[in-house]
Structures are given as C-alpha cells and as structure tokens.
Write a structure and sequence with these properties.
With 342 residues, the protein is an alpha/beta fold. The chain contains 13 helices and 12 strands. The protein has helices at 6-25, 35-53, 64-74, 87-95, 168-180, 189-201, 213-217, 228-236, 266-277, 279-289, 302-305, 312-315, 322-339; strands at 27-32, 56-61, 82-86, 99-100, 125-126, 130-136, 162-163, 205-206, 223-227, 242-244, 251-253, 255-260. α2 links the parallel β1 (27-32) and β2 (56-61). The chain is globular and about 60 Å long.
Length: 342
C-alpha cells in the first residue's frame, strides 16, 4: 500500500479548503419574502444578478419579524448577506448595531435613487415604495374620494371596511386621521376620537389584507383603506376597484434592503443590490408587483403609473417616524382593543 507524503496530503486539504471557500464566496444568501414576491424577485433581480456575476443567489423566505429575530440571535455574525425588512425593524436593528451601513460609492446606480429612499446613516435603502391609500369601487362610488376625511362620511356605513391596528393599513388610518385633525404622532388622542365612529360603521376590521378581496369582488363594500400593490393586482383580475390618493398625502410604506453585520459576501451583496436598484430591475419589479420605483430614471406605462406612488403621488407621500412607531405601537394597540375593537 502506497503512503501519501504528509506535504502532499496537507496541500490537498488546503486546496480543497480554498476551493470550498471560493465556492461559498460565489453564493449570496438573501432573506426575503415568499409567494409572488419571491417569484417576481427571481424574475426581475435574481436572474439578472446570476447572469451578470456567474454567482448563485439563494433565497431564504420568511417575514421581517422572523429575519429581525434571526439577526439578533446571530449577534453580528449573520448567515444572510442581504435581508429585506420593513423600515421600523431596520431602524431598530440599526440602533442595535446589527447592520453594516451601505457604502453608496460601491453602487453604480446610487446617484439615481430618490434622496428620501436612504435610511439614516445609510443603514438601509428603500428599494420600492407602496402606500396605504383609499381603494373604492367606481361602480358604487361615482365621485372619487379626495381626502382621508371622506372616510368619516356616514354615507359609507355598512359599505366600508377598515384594517385592525395589528395590520399596517389600520395603523396607518389611525395616524392619517390623527394628522388630519392636527395631532402629533406622539399623541394619538385626535386619531382615536376620529376613528371610533368609522370603526362602528365598518362591516369588518380586517386583520389580513386579503380578507377584503372577496368583499370587493362581490360588491359588498364600496371603499376601504388598502395597499396600492393589492389594488393593482385585483384590478388586473377584472374586479371594479380604483385608487384614490388623498390630497393630504398617502401614507408611504418603505420595504427596505439591509446588509447584516458580519455577512460573509459583501462584494456580491453590493452587486445584487445594484441590480435591484437599476432602472431595468426597478421597472420590471414595478410593473409585475405594482411597486413604486425609487430609481428616478424609471419610466412607467400609464396603467402602472396611475396606481403606484410615482411622480407627484410619490412626492406627496409621508412616512411616520419608524422609531416612534416601534416605541408607541404596543400602547396604541392596547388602547385600540379597549376603545375601537368590537
């Protein structure tokens, strides 16, 4: 039996180790959302990234809450190279020093991104924009609503649905009515007083966005605060539904991309983000997902532009302070259960 010299064996081990490391370096791990979101991400972003780099993008599916919990558990040694999060959780993780700031100089498309898409200290970037707006059935509402105040009209009793505060649209409606009545975000007294009669007139306080799909499909409701992307998708199915942007401004929703601290493949993470922020990546995702683009070079067709935050409707969006939301939402939720929920 021949004996392999120790030096040759060691060289073999080292070569295998280097090869394994190189293989690992050619994979970017992305924590993102499931369902059609993941499929559109693969079509619009992953395919272009893999073609341009020859690297592999592996998607780990879940929710913002799950990803935030994972990053906290990993303690700065993340298994994710890129993570999709809502802006309030991204802000919390930034404060906990679990994110690596984004170096804009490493992105070829950074100069074309809307200034308000960047988080504080470049902790995250808003890669798309959605909004809570007013959805209505144009067959039942012949004069389109123009203000959040229209939802206060008693004529919609039994013809309206609003979200519970446990969902984004319910919380956004509370904030919008509070703002309409002159309240500050840290004091929601005016918002609670305004929303109580609205809740009583509503046929349901929905907890999942899809709960009101059948109500619109059957014509059982005429109006509801809802999300731009859901409205666009439902309209594509032939359901009579339209978007109204309140003159006071719709409430912006800012899904973000972050770089977790301690991620292994920063170089590939930047290349992936560059694809997401490119005009092509933005346009593809906007038109498949009804997602407002943040790249200012993107030109949308009229159909999509009428629904997503874009141009003047994008400029009028307002964003509740995510740090205040993170701090106060548990308090507001308890108050909602006492004063609003039935």
């Amino acid at each position: 039996m021949s004996v392999i010299p120790r030096s040759v064996a060691l060289a073999t081990v080292l070569t295998a180790s280097i090869a394994a490391s190189a293989a690992h370096a050619q994979e970017v791990v992305i924590a993102t959302y499931g369902g059609s979101f993941a499929e559109d991400t693969k079509t619009c972003h992953v395919a272009a990234f893999e073609k341009a780099t020859g690297a592999k993008a592996t998607l780990k599916l879940g929710s913002s809450v799950q990803f935030a919990a994972s990053l906290r558990a990993m303690g700065g040694k993340s298994d994710f190279d890129v993570a999709y999060l809502d802006d309030s959780l991204a802000t919390q993780l930034q404060n906990e020093k679990l994110l690596t700031p984004i170096d804009r100089s490493k992105l070829t498309n950074a100069a074309d991104i809307a200034p308000n898409a960047w988080g504080k200290d470049n902790a995250f970037v808003n890669f798309m924009t959605a909004a809570t707006v007013i959805a209505y059935n144009p067959k039942l509402v012949t004069t389109p609503p123009t203000s959040w105040a229209d939802l206060l009209d008693p004529k919609y009793e039994g013809k309206m649905a609003i979200g519970d505060i446990t969902g984004t649209s319910g919380m956004h409606l509370l904030l919008a009515l509070n703002r309409l009545k002159g309240g500050e975000i840290g004091n929601q007294d005016a918002g609670f007083e305004a929303i109580k009669p609205v809740a009583k007139r509503s046929v349901t306080l929905y907890t999942q966005a899809d709960q009101i799909v059948s109500l619109f499909e059957r014509g059982e409701i005429a109006i509801a605060p809802w999300y731009t992307d859901r409205i666009g998708s439902l309209a594509d199915k032939g359901v009579p539904i339209a978007v109204a942007y309140p003159k006071e401004g719709a409430v912006g929703i800012r899904p973000t991309i972050v770089f977790p601290k301690g991620a292994a493949n920063a170089e590939l993470a930047y290349k992936y983000l560059d694809v997401v922020l490119s005009p092509e990546g933005q346009k593809c995702f906007a038109e498949r997902k009804y997602a407002g683009p943040v790249n200012t070079k993107v030109k949308l067709d009229d159909k999509v532009a009428a629904i997503v935050p874009y141009g003047p409707t994008y400029d009028k969006l307002w964003y509740p302070d995510p740090e205040v939301i993170a701090k106060e939402l548990p308090v507001w939720t308890r108050r909602w259960q006492r004063q609003v929920a039935r």
